[in-house]
Amino acid sequence: MTTSLPIAPAILRRFAASIYEFALLFGIYFIVGGLVQVIFTLVGKTAPIWMLQITIFLAFGCYFTYSWTRAGQTLAQKTWHIQVTQADGRNHITYKQAWLRYIFSYLGVLPALLLLFTQMHGQTSAEGDNVMVIYIQVILFMTINCLALLGTSLMNPQRRAVHEVLSGSRTIHQPAA
Prior knowledge:
177 residues, mainly alpha, two-stranded antiparallel ribbon, globular
């Protein structure tokens, strides 16, 4: 008897869960960013932007890896009935797989972050309307890149995105009970 792999979620379901996830990440961003600013203010220093960025990157990573290894899903994924499993679709992923999945998922936003970096540092004066145009470009570019990353699942026979293949994980649709 052959066992079939669990059903992968539709790309619109994945995208909807991603949008919800971004909304939840704002809370983590403000809590962690606020704590870093308070700590540096108490010692009379200004937090370097690179330190804040690394701290938030690690906080997001801890949120995702803990959620994926403990329950197999984040709050947004639970809402949209999506679960992250091993490639065979049976068990939760390991911490190593979770960190690899998290890091490789940045392939979708890396081009937009590079665009932001080059635009901000390429301007002699990035003020006012210039900054707004740059942010709008980056948001549009990031959305297109995230859709492209999710779209890689359409090219895989098992409907696994590139970050799932590289981390040995898969995303499955978990019908409501």
